[in-house]
Amino acid sequence: MKKVFILFTLLCTTLPASAQGVSCCQKEAQGCCRKNPVIESIMTRTSVRQYQNRTLSADTIEILLRAGMAAPTARNCQPWHFVLITGKDVLEALGGRSKDAPLAIAVCGDMTKALEGEAREYWVLDCSAATENILLAAHALGLGAVWQGVYPIQQRVEQVSQLLKLPETLVPLNVIAIGYPGEAPAPKDKWKPENVTIRKGLE
Amino acid sequence: MKKVFILFTLLCTTLPASAQGVSCCQKEAQGCCRKNPVIESIMTRTSVRQYQNRTLSADTIEILLRAGMAAPTARNCQPWHFVLITGKDVLEALGGRSKDAPLAIAVCGDMTKALEGEAREYWVLDCSAATENILLAAHALGLGAVWQGVYPIQQRVEQVSQLLKLPETLVPLNVIAIGYPGEAPAPKDKWKPENVTIRKGLE
Asked: Is the CB of A40 less than 8 angstroms away from the CB of B9?
């Protein structure tokens, strides 16, 4: 019986994510959060604001960037640019949590790739999805990270743009501070069933 | 040797995501995308626009909603509301990909929880992160989904608000169509190194 359970657990965790299906998981929602490594990772990610004094390898950074660029975008316009900040003086000048991190990534909207008219603002949604991918990838790689908001606070946008010497076509959405975690904060339980409404029919 | 490799692979895939670290992965960025189930899932998620005629269990839907609510939000204000749409008539009236899906989730900003002043627009970023979590969770559960943009296109906002009879305090950011996949589109490779700039120092 024990062997069957182990086999079942291994099957659940070793199959490619897309092949796991809900068959392993649908018995109980919270149980699944522990069995499916992707769901588990989404549920346990939390903001990490203290970091070890240890740099990240180029390969690790590339994985984070690849994860960001894997996000979906409106009409596949990929209206983004990523500024890697590794210089201690720049990190300190940025302040906030960046000053203690070995790396920060400024996720920027690239206005030369943004859509036209009313759809222009979709860059904000697209870059937010990219940011969430980076945060999840960092967590999955044993790193800690925190999303530090910039846009749409105009003063912050100007400050960060000046510091990073961004061309006018780039708008910084945020600065993500990233490093090996120097703290292990418990993930917040933000599940609130009252945040859900069911609409079954038109009437 | 084969046994050692199997043990190594199992260790990589069965440890909690946060404990895996980069030690299994940092050798080569693309190799890691295949070894780490979370990175793999982020990289292979893609928009799915055709669905099987099969409903989702309540537990599966709850996992999707829990994933959404696990996203980070500015000052932890959680400015969101999720409308589950299961009625065939509503799905058809929504049109787009929703009309062929067994389920749609409208991710809405809840203006009673949004921040004040310039920071108000942060609801868009927060709800976008929640949406990306739902898309990734769907993929991890063997489902297919697509983000159908609504906000900030005013006409779409009004149309969806009327159809879903949303109170004035809720603004629909999107409608996610979700179901068991009826197609298996190849994920897009959107990696573009030219989308990255490195800033090492202030000068």
From this structure: no
